[in-house]
Amino acid sequence: MWISRLANPVLGWIMGWVSFTFLGVVVVAVDYTIAATILPVLFQYQGTNENAWAITAVVLLLQAILVALSTRATQRVNNVAVTIQLIGMVSLTVLLFVVGGVTGQLDFSTLFSTGDIPRESPTSRSAA
User: Which of 26, 52, 70, 92 lies in disulfide reach of 36, CB 3.0 to 4.6 Å?
Assistant: First the structure.
């Protein structure tokens, strides 16, 4: 995990377990959702809970085999995805600043503004 390199191995270990738990829930949820909602429409069959769970089990097994057999490939895909995500986020941030500047809606004073705060809140007046 990157957190091991950026912070320390203990935080890397903790984040590893958090990620493992998260993925254990999310991967099953996404696989089941696809099997229960998208596949019946895509292949025009009557979906049931039983066949959705069967499809989910088969897909999970295939995913586990793929990860077990190709850890280096998975690592490469992950590294490319992280790089693309970083480039995309930086590009989006720059784009938002450019659009804000061109349209005249970019106002840095809003970063430090606290806004107008009324002396007495409306709820305290109505309660009295």
Answer: 52
